[in-house]
Amino acid sequence: MTLNLTDITLTYPDGDTRLTALDDITLEVPKGSLTAVVGPSGSGKSSLLAVAATLITPDRGTVTIDGTPTTGMSRGELTTLRRHTIGIVFQQPNLIASLTAAEQLQVMARIDGRSPARARPRAMELLDAVGLADQAARRPHQLSGGQRQRVNIARALMNDPTVLLVDEPTSALDHERGAAVIDLITRLTHERSTATILVTHDRAHLTAADRIAEVHDGRLREPAGSPHS
To answer: Cα(52)–Cα(65) distance, rounded to whole angstroms?
Structure first.
């Protein structure tokens, strides 16, 4: 298993008490598979993704990536782990307006202390993988919403992560473009053997998932009819 969340409990302060966001959640995501996480607003989906990304430390439980537990890691160690192991596709692409599609990816190399120029072949490879090799020189305002989201996905894969975490990638897209983005994420998951968690509100796209997990009031369950129910 590439990504394991084991007995995860997460609470937040709520006045004089604490609000439980995640309640004893265990989730295993094998490499090369896509797990879709669904549930109503406020159910804990975003909290689960943040814990999996090591952006939030749970009250209890363990996140294990590639066999390495993250418990006890320093902030710097977690930052390095994310940079080299975890790709995050945010709900909004948040592309840099002044950079071309290729440069959006190359800047990831600079963050990692590598030469952006030497990273260009990798950037072009990924743009080709998401069907945008011919758009490499275009800036965000010259791209459609679906194309910007594809750049977002390619950028998340720039450092060859083993874990891919995707947050509501179709929320700003129409059904057709949203379906194309989900198909792309599914294909790249299988081709690049990432352990992928996809948080989504759109149940129309769930047929692409290898597993469906439903979050309600911080608890995880597999709904009837899911591929592994």
So the answer is: 9
